């Protein structure tokens, strides 16, 4: 969507073009009426020419008045370049999200951008482990039903929290490199505490993924065979029984026929 300044100049240009068109139209109709109107009086066709010329002159005057009124207003201030770029990115993201594969593409772009932003910091390795665990859990989400259902939103919330924590660890670490020597001890202590929280959180998330995999494995291996496998086994046993019976019938000699 265009900003206020762009809309202002677009409207100004439209009014200017409209005023010029109506000026040309009114001049042409007035000239035609002056030439075609007979000196003896006005007929019905001549009245139509005159009415068209008068209406065009009125509309022309209105257009020029609207143009002068709009031109007298101050133009809205120009947007900041950063704000303009942000709006352009928002429009691009909205256009991509409307595509069938748009959400997946945007998620991958955000993931890669986050990984690049953490490169060279101590948060890069825990973030990579968290990312692998999250992708693994995403492949099992559809099977985590029943008692395991509440684990899915909890894992999503933990994933967001840990990614935010990784960003804070990286930010504090970069600040620590630039801090003067007398300000480094408290920053180093805060960085160590955040890094420890990140490490313990990622380890807990990995244990959650392992537990989810165990649930999926046990859920797909019940005590009885699945219904489809059971039916196949029953059909196989039936076919074996029929084939055995046919084989026995072929080995039995037919009894001699007796006539009364």
TrEMBL record:
| InterPro entries the record matches | Rv2743c-like
- Entry superkingdom: Bacteria
Q: Does the keyword Transmembrane apply?
A: yes
Name the UniProt key words of this record, in alphabetical order: Membrane, Transmembrane, Transmembrane helix
Q: Which residues cross the membrane?
A: 21-41, 47-65
Entry-linked NCBIfam families: PspM_Rv2743c
What is the name attached to this protein's record? Uncharacterized protein
UniProt organism field:
Micromonospora endolithica
